[in-house]
Amino acid sequence: MSADYQVHGSVAVITLNNPPVNGMGLATRTAAVDGIERALADEAVKAIVITGAGKAFSGGADIKEFNTPQALAEPNLHTLIATAEGSTKPVVAAIHTVCMGGGLELALGCHYRVAMPGAQIALPEVKLGLLPGAGGTQRLPRVLGLEMALNMIVSGTPVASEKLAKAGLFDELFGADADLLTSAVAFAEKIAAIRPLPKVRDRRVDYPNHEAFLQFSRNTVKAMSGPYPAPLECVETVAASVTMKFEDGLKFERERFIHLIQTTESKALRHAFFAERIAGKVPDVPADTPVRAIKSAAVIGAGTMGGGIAMNFVNAGIPVVMLETTQEALDKGLATIRKNYDNTMKKGKLTQEKFDQRMALLSGTLSYDEIGQADIVVEAVFEDMGVKETVFRQLDRVMKPGAILASNTSTLDLNRIAAFTARPQDVIGTHFFSPANVMKLLEIVRGAQTGKDVLATTLALSKKLKKTGVVSGVCDGFIGNRMIEQYSRQAGFLLEEGCLPEQVDKAVEKFGFAMGPFRMGDLAGNDIGWYIRKRRYIESPDISYSKTADLLCEMGRYGQKSGAGWYDYKAGDRKAYPNEQVNAMIVQHSADLGVGRRKVGDQEIVERLVYSMVNEAALILEEGIAMRASDIDMVYLTGYGFPLFRGGPMFYADTVGLPNVLSAIEKYARGLHGEAWKAAPLLLRLAREGQTFNG
Ligand code: 3HC
Ligand code: NAI
C-alpha cells in the first residue's frame, strides 16, 4: 500500500505514501485510484482531499521506473489524473513542501488546489531531458497564462507557492501556522456542493499575438539549449496549448514525451541525477554512522588551493584559520581571499554585511600551537612527500584528539601520509579541484585505516560545503587524475603522429568537453604535469610519454601564468592563439623520432582520448579504487568538464557499446604506442558478456 485512505467527517483523505518524496510509482498510482473509487462508492463522502505524507506532496513520476514496464502499466499517471478530474465528487489537492513534475500535474487535474506557503512548485522535467508528460504543458498555461507557464516549463526552476497563489494556481493559500490537513478538510467541506466541478481543461489560453511570442521563444530557447532537444520540445508542446484543442494537445505532448524519454541526452541526465545521489552512499558505512561535529577548521598552506579551500569553509559559516611558513605568504593568501570576496561584492553578489561576516570568520597564523583546537585541518602545502611529512608530524603533535587530519594531495600515497601520525584512523584525503571555491567535485580519499566515522563526517561535510563528494581508494592520482594521465599521454602521442594542439583541442571541444587538453594544460600550469612526470621517470621508467610537453616547459612556456604555453595569450583576452615556434618544435620532434606525420581524423582523436580514460577507469573499478562506474562518471562530470549530455565516460562507453570500445582499443594497440592500449580485464569480460559498466 503506498497511499493511505481515511475519512474525516464527509471528506475522504488520500495520502500518497511512498518515501522519500512520494514518487508516483505503480503501487502509489494504483492505491490513489483505488482511494478515489472507494470514496465515490461511499455515500457518506462528499469530497476528496489528496495530499502527501512526509516531506513532499509529490516529487513527480517515479524516475526509477522510467524505461521499465511499470512506467506504462495501468493505472498510469494519465489514468490517475483522468480519474481525479472525472470524479463526480470534488477533488482537492492539498499541497505542501514539494510539488513537482507529475505531482503538480496531478494537482492540476484536481478540481481545487490549496497549499501551504513555502512549498516548492515546479515542472522540472526539462532538467532530466524531458517535458511534462502528464498534461502539464496543456494545463499549466491554462492556469498561469502562456508566458509564466512557458518560463516555468522551459527552466524547470521551482517557484514558491506564495508567488503562484497570486498568479491563481491555488484556490486558497493557508497561513504558515495552519494545520494543512484540518484546513484542507474544512475547505473541501465548504466547496463540496458546488457544481459544475471546475476543470482546468475547460479554460482557454488567451495571449494576444501568441504566434509572435512563440516564435521569439523558439529562437531564444534554440540558441540557449545547445545539444539538448528537450527545451525546444517544451516550447512546441506549450504552443499546442494555444493552437490545439485540449485532447489533441495532450496527445501531442504524449508523443513528444515518449520521443524524449528514449534520447541519450535524457538518459544521461537521469543517470547523472541518480549518480550524484548514490555517490554519497558507502556500502560498509551505514547511514546512521555517527559523525563528528565540524564547527571550526584550519588550512595549512595559503596558496592557490589553500585559499580556495578556506573560502569553502567560510562560505558555509565555519570559522577557519590558515597557517603559513612566512608572514609574507600568509598576508598574500589572506589578501587574495579578501580580493575575491571584494570582487564578488563589486558585482553585486555579496552585501557589505555578508562580506564583513565572512572576513570575520577568517584568520591567519604562523604557529601550529594556535590551530590545535580545530575540528578539521586540511593540508594544502607543496606536492612533495618530504614537506607533507613535516606537516603531518606537526599536526599529530598539536591537533586535539578526534580532530580530522585531511590532505589535499592530488597524487601522493595517503597511507604513507597517514603513517606519519600515530592516528591513521583520523587521516583522510580531501582532494579539491581548482578553483576550489568554484568546482563542485570533492574526491574523498579513503585510506586503508581511515575510520568509518571520519569518512561519514567528510561525506556530510562535502554536502555542507555544497560539493559533490565521491569516494576514491588510494592509488597514484586517485580516480580523476589517474584517468586524465592516460588522456594527456594520448594527446601527447597525437602531437608526435601528426596533430597540432588546436586540432586536438577543437575535436575534443566539439565532442563537448569544456576545454581541450592543451588549453586545459595552459590553464592549470604545464609545470605541474612536468613535475609529476619527472617523478614518474624515476619511479615508473616503463611508462612512455611524449617529450613534447617537457620541451614546451624547457622553453619556459608554463601556460597562462607565464603568459605563454601551448598557445600565446594576450592581456585582457582569454583566447588561445597558436604559436609558430611551438608548432615547429612539435613537427621537429616528430622528425627527430623518425615518425612520419600523418593526417589524423577527429574521430581518432576523440576515441583515443576518451577510450584511454575508459580503459584506465575499468582498471580503477576492478581494483576497487572506485566503488561503482557511476562514481567515475560523477568525478568527470563535476571535476573535469566532461559533457553532461554524454553522461560521463563510463555511461558514454555504455552507449557506444563496450564491444565497439574494445575493438577500437584493440585497433590502437596495433598502432604506434600500442603499449599504452592493453585492454583492461573488466572491459574484456563485460564486452564479451554483452554487459555495461553501469549495469
Ligand atoms: N522519483 C524517484 N525518486 C526520487 C524522485 C522521483 N521523482 N525525486 C527524488 N527521488 C529520490 C532521490 O533519488 C533520493 O533517493 P535516495 O534517498 O535513495 O538517494 C531521494 O528521493 C531524496 O532526493 P534528494 O536527495 O534530491 O532530496 P532533496 O530533499 O534534496 O530534494 C527533490 C527533493 C526536490 C524532490 C529532488 O529530489 C528533485 O528535484 N527530484 C526530482 C524531481 C523531478 O524531476 N520530478 C519530475 C519527475 S519526471 C515526471 O514527473 C514525468 C511526468 O511529467 C510524466
Ligand atoms: P601552491 O604552491 O599554490 O601553495 C602551496 C602553499 O603552501 C604555499 O603558499 C607555501 O608557502 C605553503 N607551504 C609550503 N610548505 C609549507 C609548510 N611546511 N607549512 C605551511 N605552508 C607551507 O600549491 P597549490 O597549487 O595550492 O597546491 C597545494 C596542494 O594541493 C598540493 O598537494 C597539490 O598537489 C594539491 N592540488 C593542487 C591543485 C591545483 O590545481 N593547483 C588541484 C588539486 C590539488
**Major β-sheet profile:** 8 strands, mixed
Write down the oligomeric state: single chain
Give the CATH superfamily of the largest domain: 2-enoyl-CoA Hydratase, Chain A, domain 1
Strand order of the largest sheet: 12-11-10-13-14-15-16-17
**CATH-derived architecture of the largest domain:** Alpha-Beta Complex
How many strand units?
A: 19
Helix content: 40-55%
**What is the domain total for the residues?**
3
Cα-based radius of gyration, to the nearest Å: 29 Å
How much of the sequence lies in strands comes to 5-15%
Note the overall shape.
globular
| CATH class label of the largest domain | Alpha Beta
List the helices and strands and how they pair.
Elements: E1 3-8, E2 11-16, H1 26-41, E3 47-52, H2 69-72, H3 77-85, E4 91-95, E5 98-100, H4 102-109, E6 112-115, E7 120-122, H5 136-144, H6 146-155, E8 159-160, H7 161-166, E9 172-173, H8 180-191, H9 210-224, H10 230-243, H11 246-261, H12 264-279, E10 297-300, H13 304-315, E11 320-323, H14 327-346, H15 352-360, E12 362-365, E13 376-379, H16 385-398, E14 404-407, H17 414-419, E15 427-432, E16 441-445, H18 452-464, E17 468-472, H19 478-497, H20 501-511, H21 517-524, H22 526-539, H23 548-554, E18 567-568, E19 577-578, H24 580-593, H25 602-622, H26 629-639, H27 649-656, H28 658-669, H29 681-689
Brief overview:
This protein has 695 residues and is of the alpha/beta class. Helices cover 49% and strands 11% of the residues. The protein contains 29 helices and 19 strands.
